[in-house]
## 1
Amino acid sequence: MKKYYNNPSRHGIAENTKSPILHNIRTLIVPLILLGAFAPVLTLQSAMLPFVEDFSGTTTDLTLTNQQNSSWSQSSGALRLTATDGAGASASSASTSFSELGGSSNNGFTLQTDFTVSGSVNSGGFIFAGFMVLGDQNDHSFYGYRVETRFETGLMRIQKIGGSGDITHTQQTFGSFTFGETYTATVQGVYGNNGPAGADSLDLTFTIEGGDLVTPRQVTASDNSGSLMTGSHFGLRNRVENTTGMEVAFDQLTVIPEPSSVVLVLTGLVCGMVMLRRRS
């Protein structure tokens, strides 16, 4: 005698199958609901979409400024700063403003660029290359935080320009970088409450890696003064003097919001989809 197991189709009963359309709709809607739940966090801490400039065209969205002895150009996928041979000091900047950063937003940030320096430094000369952070204007004479390296000596430092109060920082000389090598420079800003009476504070981390470096070089700074710089301008900032054939070529510049809240949202979406799959 044949045995029939608990199979509805054996008894002429239609199976209670799940509609694939309904399943797909549920799979889509629940992550969207989760995204809506986390939206206030995203808006408050990471509203800004990532800014990416790869300099692949002939113009840039950045505002370019320079003094009389240097000039900017854009070609072959790079933004290039050149300086007059043997000329006096010349500062320059390439930056733009981000409404989601600066002010009282306290939104963390990360800036990154790839850069290559060519040429040579004469006696008494120098090449500083780095970032403008929380600047008050798109200009090389901005007030804010200057994050830079002196290329020919390997000095790395973070300075507060303008405003009141000082920063606690490390300034270190690692040894000269190599002309012609391409390095990756990154500065990250994270806000806290380490100022007087729990006032806002800012921790900055400056890292250079890649090229011929075996290990990354890094310095940090903390502004616990209770008087933070609050400009919304971010970008590149350089200063050179008495060089020959000097060019600093930047392959790209990215500015992204502090990623923790973005990770939180994505984690929520993934967890929601996993829960749906387990129940289906």
Note: The longest strand covers residues 109-135.
## 2
Amino acid sequence: MLARYGGDHWQNNMKWSAVGGTGDGHRMGLEAGGSLVGEGVMHIHAVAGRQDSFFDRMEMFALQLVVDDNGMQMTAGDEHYSTAALKMTTMNGGYGNFIFDANASFATAELEEMAAEGYAVKADTLEELAEKAGLPVENLLLTVRQHNRHIETGTPDAWTTAPGAMIPVTTAPFYCLKRQSVIMGTIAGLKINNNMEVVRDNGEPVGNLYATGELIFGNLFNNVYPMSGTAITTCISTGQLASDHAVETMSK
């Protein structure tokens, strides 16, 4: 399903789909005569190579300086995690290097833990940090200088990050946390009408077939995952609509 509907570059992403999320519902709907709508994947990002790293959500939602493997900034500091993950996927092979310093008090405990476990690197200078992280030293120093200058002068950076959404990188110790894009599922979904009935390409219902929740995401958004938890309210509301219509239809 990812190969067919996930778009390019998905191979470098970790896969965190729900248990049973194999695409069977999509295939069943298509075999019954339904059609698909939407494209892209549901993206977040997590500590690279760590499958149980959702506990590090503080970094996922935090303001940050993110650089590519050349040490150059690659996202806005307040980038939504889904679009940041998309940029990591398309611009840097699925990875991003998140730079923090002692000012990141909101995440110090997690960063210390991940440095001890080898998932992050810690250094007393930016030069040492770049060398440990395998980043070009001069590029990283230039990027950090530019970042700090925008904060000092109160001007947005090249990624349109507002100065108030930037955290200075000035105080040791410094950390570099490599994060990786994560795919939780495809956005492409079975096309439905307002009654949650699966429809054909021409908009006519297949008949006696409904789709709800994650199966219909492509009807609601496209290419970019809006927010964690989207599926929860979608499952509740669309499931109610589908069941109401089914009961009404059977009662006639």
Note: The chain is about 35% helix and 20% strand.
